[in-house]
Amino acid sequence: MQISLLIVMLAALLVPILMARFKINAIPTAVAEILIGMVIGTSGFQFVHSNESLTLLSTLGVIILMFLSGMEIDFSLFKKITE
After folding, report:
1. The whole model's pTM is what?
2. Alpha carbon distance 37, 58 (integer Å)
């Protein structure tokens, strides 16, 4: 099952490098990594099988993704406009 961890780590390393190399700006890197994860995971070609390490990494990844998306919120848009 360690090969699954290796495949996931390689995909996480290669996706941003390839996106920068080929200047792909149409989608964010996080979205591309999620799509690649779906393709190599149990939803796609089933190259990767879940284990404890991958479950921990996926939970940590979701937490970091939610944190970063929260940092992007512009709270000034929620202020009332008084005239």
Report:
1. 0.78
2. 10
